[in-house]
Amino acid sequence: MTAIAAKSGQDRWWNSRTTHRFLGHHLALLGMVMIVCLTLACVLGPHLLPYDSLYIDLRARFSPPLTGYHYLGTDPLGRDVAARLFMAGRTSLLVGFSAMLLSTLIGTFVGVIAGYRGGWIGTILMRTVDGFLSFPSIFLVLALAAALKPGPIMITVVIAASSWMEVARIVEAEVRSLREREFVQAGRMLGLSGTHIMFREILPNAIGPIIVAATLTVARAILMEAYISFLGYGIQPPLPSWGNMLNGAQQYLNSAPWLAIIPGAAITIAVTSFNFIGDGLRDAFDVRADHS
Amino acid sequence: MTKDLTTKSTYSRRDALRLMAAGSVASFVAPNLLGKPAYAQTPPTTPSGRVVVGLSQEPTVFNPLMAHIEVDDAVHFSVFDALFRIDPKGVLQPNLAAEVPSQKNGGISQDGLQWRIRLRDDVRWHDGKPFTADDVKFTLELITNPKFRAWRTGGHSLVRDIKVVSPTEITWRMESVFAPYMSFLAETFIVPKHILEKEADPNAAAFNQAPVGTGAFKWARRIAGDHIELVANTEYFGEGPYVERVVFKYIPDMTVLYTQFKSGDIDLTDQAYISADHYQEASKLPRRVVKLQPGASVESIYLNLEKPQFKDPAVRRALYAAIDRKAIIDAIYYGVGTVTETFMPQQSYYYNPDLPAQEFNLNLARKLLDEAGWLPGPDGVRGKNGVRLAFANSTTSGNNLREQVQQFLQQTFAEIGVEMTISNLPAAVMFGEFWLKSQFDSAISGVAHLIAADPDATNRLHSSAIVAKGGKGSNVGQYSNPEVDALLKKGAQTFDPEARRAIYLRVQEIVRQDLPFLPLFSATYVIGRKEGLEGSESNANTRTASWHAAGWHWKR
Amino acid sequence: MRGFLINRLCQSLVLLLIVSVIGFVVLNLIPGGPLAQFGLDPSMTQDDLNRLKEQLGLNRPLWMQYLDWAWRLVQGDWGHSFRDGASVLDVIGRHLFATLLLMGSSTIIAIAIGTWIGIRGATHRYSVFDYLATVGAMVALSIPTFWFGLVGIYVFSLQLGWLPAGNMYTIGDGSALNYMHHLILPSIVLALVHVAIWSRYMRSATLDVISQEFVKTARAKGLSERRILMKHVVGNALLPMITLAGMQLPSVLTGALVTETVFTWPGMGRLFLDSLGYSDYPVVMGLLMFSAILVVLCNLITDIVVAIIDPRIRLS
C-alpha cells in the first residue's frame, strides 16, 4: 500500500485517485462485499452450525436442503452439507490465496529479472514463459498431480507452477518500460546495485498491474483446484474442498442434485467476486487492458 | 435380494461333487451341455437379432494370450475357445477338447505328470482352416516365448515335451505336479498357428487388432473408444450362436451405463455392471431383469502385517470387531454385498460355510485392546511400547463408495481409540509398487484370491509369495503361517476334488483365525438384462457376464 | 521475412523440446507405472511383471528411454500404446474426430454469439445490454465448465428430458441428426467461456474501428449504420481475432478435456485421462506432443499472418 501512496505522492492512500476510482466501481464493491461475506461464513459458519463437517450419520443420508437443521441438506454419508461447504471454503480459499502468493512471487521475480536484465537472460526467461503458456495447462497439472502425493500443499504448488506466467509477462513488460526512466537512471548513476534498483526502485512502481494480476490469479487458482479435485487428482477426502465435494456428485445428480449445485454455486460466487474485484482494480490502476 | 442369494447358495454341495466326478463321463454323452439354460426355450434356428453389451472399461487387447485385464475377457470368450470351459457350477466342461482329462479316465497319469488331451475333429477357424493339435502346441509354446508379451505364464512354464500325436491328440509332461493347471487351461484360449506363425513379431501382429478364432462369434470391426462388433459364426461346432450380432459398447461412466440400460440402448450390463446405488431403482424397471450375482473377489481391508501396529493379532481382532459391516453393506452399498468370513467365493465348491461370524461390538473391541496392553494415550489414541495405534488407509481415489466406507470406518475406529488417516491414490499409482511391494499401512480393495476359479490361493497367502521379501507372487499383506504354507503346497498337488476340499476348508479356518485381512463383504454385481434376452446365465467362475454369448437368444 | 520465419521456427522447435522433456520426466515421476493395471490380477506373478517390464523396455534408464522415444518421434514413429498395441497416431486419430467436432461446433457458437454481443455492446455502449453483457461475460468466465455441464445435464436431460446426458450418438443410430442432438449440450457448455472472451474482444475491437477515420468518412458519405458495420467494422475487427483464436487454443483444449469427461464424449480429453489412469506413456506423451505441436503451429501461423498484415511486428 505504501507503493500506491508513493505513486500518488502527496495524498494518503485512502484519499488517492485509485481508491476513489475503485470505490466508484460498483461491481468491484459488490465483489468485495461478497468475498468478505464468504470469508466470514467460512471462518465463523462452522462454529454456528450444530453439525461438525466430518460427523457421519448414515440415518440422515441424502436429506434434502431444509431438513431440520440441515439447511443445505446432507451428503451420502449423512454429513451436513452446509458445514462441509464452509470447511471446504476454508480449504479452497486458502489454496487459492497461497497459490496466488506463490505464483505472484515466482512471476514477479522472473518478470523483474527478465525485464531489467533483458538480453539473452531475458530471452530465455520469456521463451520459457511462452513455453508454459502455449501448453494446455490441465495436461501438465494432471500429470503433476498424479506424480505427487495429493494434498493441499502439493495442489497449491502445482497450481502455482501452472499460473505464474501471466504475472511474469505483465511484470516484464512493465519493468522494461520503466527501465529507461529518469529515477532508474539516477539510481544507476548513484551506483546502486542491480538488485536494489530492481526490487526497491522499479518494483514498487509496477505494483498496480501486479495486484490486478494477483487478484485474477486467485480466481483462476480456485477454478483450477476445482477442476483437479473434480477429476479426482486433487484434495482427498475427508478434508473437504469445493472441488472434491463435486467429485462424485454427478453420480447423484438425479437423486440428490443439491450435492452438485451447492458447491458449484459457491465456486462461481467466489470466482466471480475475485474477477469483479480484479476488473475494478484494473480500472482503478488504469492498467491497459491488453496487458492481461 | 437376500432371497435371490439364498437360492443361489443352497445349491447342494453333494450335487456339485457328483457332477464334478461325473463331468468327464457326462461330456462324452452330451458334449454341448455347457451352459445350456434350464429354462431353455427353443432358440431360433438361424441367428437373428443383436445384443448390445455395456462395458465401463474399453476392451483393447484382442490377442487372448497377451497381457490383458478383466474387461478384455468379454471379447475373448466370444471369439475364441479354450480346451475346456468352466460352467456356472464350477465344473469343467470340454470345449475344444473332446473330454476333460482326469486321473480316472487316464488323461492324467497317476503321478500327475503326464497329460494327454484328445481334441474335437470338427472345429474350423473363422477363415475355414481346420483346427488341429498343432494349434494347441503353438499356443502353449507362444505363451512361454520370451519375446512374447504373454499374460500369466504360471503353470505354462512347467509344460515340457509337447508332442502332437495326431491332429486330434496332444501330450505333454509337467515339470512338477500342478493341479490348478486344469483350471488355467480353461482360460487359455487357443490361437491359430497358420496365421501367427508367419508373424516376425507376435506382439505387433495384425491378428492382435482383428483376431481369428474358433468361437461362436467372428470379429467384425472395432470403433476404438466406442464399440466392438462381432457377427455370428454360423459354422460354429458347438451350441449356438443364436443372435446375429454382439456389440460391446464402451461407456466409461457408470451412471451413463445405467442410464443407457434404463433407456434400452443396452441389452446387457457387463463389467463393471450397474452401480450399487442404482440397484433399487433398477430392480423396479419395467421389462428389465436385474439380478445380484456374487463375484469372486472379496472387498477387504488389507493390513500390512509387517507394520508394528498390525503384528499383534489382538489388534486385528479388535479392528474387525469395530467394523459395522451391516451399516456398510446396507447403507453405503445399498444392500449390494454379501457378508463373508473368507476369501473363497461363496459359490465355490471349496467354500467353508462354518466359519465363526464376525460381530460388530465396540466394547468387545475396546476390551481386546485393553487386554492386549494397547492403552489410550494423552491424545486418546491407543499405544503400546511406543507404537501408536495409528495408520493410513489407502484406496483408489475416485471410487466414491470406497471413500465413503473409509470415512465411515475412520469415525468408528476413532471411537475405540484408533487413528486412521486417509491417503488415497489413483489406481495406476496404487496398484504399482505401493501395493505389490507392500508399501501401504492398510488398504481397501476388492481382491480375488483364486486363479481361474481354482481354489489354490498360493499366490495370495503363501509366505513365498511376498514380493517385499524377495518372493514372487502377490501376498501383499505379507501373511505368513507355516501350516497354511504346507496345506497350500499339498492342495496344489492334489487332483481329487474331495481331498482338495478338506485341505482348503482348513486353510480358510486358519485364515479366519489369523485375520491377515478384514473381509467387509464379498463383491456382488448387479447384472441387468432386457426382458426377453434368454440364455444369459451369469457365471461367477469367469470374470465376465459375456462368458457364453453363444447361448444368448431373444425370446420370440 | 525469411530470417523472421527461421527464427520463429527454431524457437518453436526449442519449445517443443522443452515440452517433451518436461512431459517425459513428469510422467515417469508418477509412481506405479503401466503395469499397475495387473496389480490386482492374482495370476500375474512378480516374474511375469518383470518380464513384461523388460519386454516393454521400461527397465532402461530414463534418459535412454527418452532418447529412444525422441529419436523415433523425429523419424515419424510415435510409438505404440501399451494398452492395445496400436500406433499412437492411430489412437489419437480415432479420437480426433470427436474432439474436433466438439471444438468446432463450440467455436462456431462462440464466434457467432460472441461477435453479435460484442458488436451490439460496442454500438450501444453503456446501454443496459452492454452492461449486462459485461457482467454476464465476467460471470461466465467464473463458472467452472464441468459444473455448468452438470447443471445443464440436470435441467435439460434429467428434469426436462430434452437432450441426452452424454455420449456422441445412440448406438445403432449414426444419423447426423442424432449426432447433432448429442452435440447441443456439450458444445454450448464448452462455448460459454469463449462466448465471454470473444464478446469482450469483439467489443473493444469494434470500438477501435468505429473511432477510426474511414468509418467517419463512410458515415459522412451517408452509408447506413448497418452497412458500415458489416463492411468495415466487422471486416477490420475480425483480423485481430486470428491472433485470439490461436491464443485460445490451449484453453479450448483444457475445456474440451473437462467437458468430454462430464459428457462421456469419446474424444482426446477422455483418451488423455484414460491413458493417464493406465500410465500408458506412449499415448500420454503423444497427446502432449500433439497438442503442443497444434498450439505452436497455431501460434506460428498467427505470427506469420500478423507479420504479413503488419510488417512493423517483424522488427520488434
List the helices and strands and how they pair.
The complex is a heterotrimer of chains A (292), B (556) and C (316).
Chain A: H1 2-8, H2 17-24, H3 26-48, H4 81-117, H5 119-133, H6 137-147, H7 152-161, H8 165-179, H9 182-189, H10 194-205, H11 207-230, H12 242-246, H13 258-285
Chain B: H1 2-9, H2 13-29, E1 50-55, H3 73-79, E2 84-86, E3 92-94, E4 114-118, H4 133-143, E5 159-166, E6 169-174, H5 181-185, H6 193-196, E7 217-223, E8 227-232, E9 245-250, H7 254-263, E10 268-269, H8 279-283, E11 288-303, H9 308-311, H10 313-321, H11 325-332, H12 362-371, E12 375-376, E13 382-384, E14 387-388, E15 390-394, H13 400-415, E16 419-422, H14 427-436, E17 442-448, H15 458-461, H16 482-492, H17 497-514, E18 517-530, E19 533-534, E20 553-554
Parallel strand pairs in B: 1-9, 1-10, 15-16, 15-17
Antiparallel strand pairs in B: 2-3, 4-6, 5-6, 7-8, 8-9, 11-17, 11-18, 12-13, 13-14, 19-20
Helix pairs in contact in B: 10-12, 16-17
Chain C: H1 2-29, H2 46-55, H3 62-74, H4 88-123, H5 128-142, H6 145-159, H7 176-210, H8 213-220, H9 225-262, H10 268-277, H11 281-309, H12 312-315
Helix pairs in contact in C: 1-11, 4-5, 4-7, 4-9, 4-11, 5-7, 6-7, 6-9, 7-9, 8-9, 9-10, 9-11, 10-11
Task: Provide an overview of this structure.
The complex is a heterotrimer of chains A (292), B (556) and C (316). Chain A is mainly α and 292 residues long. Chain A has a single domain, classed as MetI-like (MetI-like fold), CATH 1.10.3720.10. Chain A contains 13 helices and no strands. In chain B, 28% of the residues lie in helices and 20% in strands. Chain B is built from 17 helices and 20 strands. Chain C has 316 residues and is mainly alpha-helical. Chain C has twelve helices and no strands. In chain C, helix 4 packs antiparallel against helix 5 and helix 6 packs across helix 9. Chains in contact: A-B, A-C, B-C. Chains B and C meet through helix 7, helix 14 and strand 17 of B and helix 2, helix 4 and helix 10 of C.
